[in-house]
Structures
1.
Amino acid sequence: MKAVSVATGLLLAALTASSAIAQSAPAQLDDAALRSRYALANSQFGEIDGETVHYAVQGKGPAILLVHGSFASLRQWDEWAAKLSRRYRVIRYDQSPAGLSGPSPAGDYSIEHRIRVIDGLMDRLKIERFVMVATSSGGLPAAAYAAARPQRVQGLVLNNIAVGPVKFDLDGMAPALKAALAEDRTHPGWHAPEYWRQILLANVTDPSGITPALVQQWTDLNSRLLRDPAIGKAVAASTSFKRAPDDLRAITAPTLLLWSADDHETTLERDGKQALYLLGSTDKTLEVVEACGHMMPFDCPNRALARVTPFLQRITGK
């Protein structure tokens, strides 16, 4: 039985797909068109550690940095940012080469590079201490940063992160997802909207949130990554969850682990409880959100935020 992770294995495979483009491949938007369509009113772009970083800042108060997951973008946090910015200064950014950031001219997508990008972004904004919130694979650089920069991390929220290699039973996939993956193999150089729609549906409990606009966003932004196959290969080569346990052990900041009860990607039993055990912090809590899937930020944002708010208020005093 072949087993891989939908959020990592299948999607990393998407990045490393052949550069051969089928004749029926849809036209891709250039970067100018993508910025016009997907940048926010408060979007900013700056060069940090040699690459272009897309970021957005809104609100006033204690600083909170939001780190998105695989093949998403800072838009993954739209609902969270709108609510959190009423009380906090919310910073979010696209992890290169996702969203509108990058690619890295040096082909550097290592964790060390991602730590330097976070340092550079927060230095640019003159923010010395802040709370980090990360979801899914965003937990990998967030945990590494918290372990390496304890003086800067005031508190940490890790949501549905992988504690080690993630495995997913392909035989247990929904028939529609299997069909989308089979169809996708017929044109190795690009992905149809239905491919991304089924990936998204596999990671939520409420399908109403998977709108045509969201599917098109994922299609357009992820098509950008396929222009140069070398980018995908560099990302895949630098993406490993083997370091996660050591990084978790080294974390000293107060930490809230926020888990979805219906996360079949990074499960509560395999990853959530193990993360709680491994965490080096003496101030650590595991909270479970019922009826929510792996992509918590847009599957159950309000119920998730209700669990996060008391932690933020205690850590920041606001």
Note: The chain has one domain: 6-12+29-172+239-316.
2.
Amino acid sequence: MAFGIKKEELDSWKMKVARGEIAFLTHYWQDPRFSEAKTVTKVGCSSIEVLAEWGAKYGLKKEWIHQRQDYPHFDLLGDFQRRILEAEGLHEHLSRFSIRKDDR
């Protein structure tokens, strides 16, 4: 279950993904399979090849791409999430959702 984002943020992410841009969407999240995770960042792009190439520079595997509907994306959790948001300069995501080094 996702929460903590506005409809406009989701719509903006979808538009960027559809245009073939690498787009980031971070939100609060609950899933019993990943009870330690409080947030997730979805990194999407309509081009699987562009997304896979982007992910490879962070050690993400192409087979980890969720190919659902029109919005292929990686789900970033935990240390991957924090490290990639830092590397991409997305400090607003880190502060808004209180993602810190000691978070799981």
Note: The mean pLDDT is 91.
3.
Amino acid sequence: MSDNKNSAAKRKGGLGRGLGSLLEGNKYTGKTESSTLNEVNTIADIAIDQIQTNPYQPRTHFDQSALEELAESIKVQGIIQPITVRQLGPNSYQLISGERRYQASKIAGLKVIPAFIRKADDQQMLEMALIENIQRENLNAIEIALSYQRLLTECSLKQEELGDRVGKKRTTVTNYLRLLKLPPDIQIALRDNVISMGHARALINIDTIEQQLDVFKEVVAKELSVRKVEELVRNLQNAKKKPDPQQKLQFGKYDEELKTVESKLTSQFGTKIQVKANNDGKGEIKIPFVSVDELNRILEILNY
């Protein structure tokens, strides 16, 4: 009996300042009331097989080796920080946050796990799970971006509100959301740490998906640094602004021919003729006149 008290005291003392502040005044029961609903805002030991995973969990990939390392730590130290759940009914709970601890505890062979029980509807579940993971878990950039997008769409938050909720500047939120405009191949590479956030932010400034993928393949093949990718992107943008030198030479010669045509037509019609053409070779001929008599003269030349 005294051992149980000591372990409960250790657990309570190991919650840490942040969670201790969050749960201040909450009751730790040290056991699960199996036949009735637990009191909300309490910490209780809950049977792991009574807990459902969180359907709103933003993390889609858990590193197995990292989970096994955490499981070994749990075998030695126990659960330092309780998971958070909501109670669906007697002996039925749903995870809000702490899925890594929950999964590692299963690997460690634990039968029960300490959990903070709180009240939450589906939207609150989603918002709490997303924000909890963004703030506490090592999500990859794509998971963060998807979490931000879900908070905007499913929780009806504006970007300013979202920034306040997650403690980030609006520009930071925007930069993450822009990643979702990248083609799937690049998003997967970012998710799997093949490229970094810096690489992705450079690639997103390329206008077309085809060019994005071409540069991306070069980045992976040559293991280019972020600075080198930024340089490649600048070169692409500058090349787009500058005309092709060969094309410029061709149109320069074409312009001379047009001037010759203008000169001959001006001489033939006795009035200043303008001949204009665009890069596609399309254009117009302008024949000005200052009176009806001059118009009739021009029409006679044209055999009209």
Note: DSSP finds 14 helices and eight strands in the chain.
4.
Amino acid sequence: MPKRILTGTVTSDANAQTVTVSVERRFTHPVLKKTIRKSKKYRAHDENNAYKVGDSVRIIECAPKSKTKRWEVLTAEA
């Protein structure tokens, strides 16, 4: 099974080697036929503490690194 890759924005870099990434998805509501925006936060591993708040990054699934971290930062988006 391939690993998922998501694109989001760094919302926190307070912890060592960890960033919090907010990923937004858009979809059409099945009944209302209205476009809905939902966001979810993921904790991602950042080995060199290279990413700061506001950076756009891509994250990829990985084996659990801690209790809450199951993602790692792949690259920064241009």
Note: The chain has one domain: 5-76.
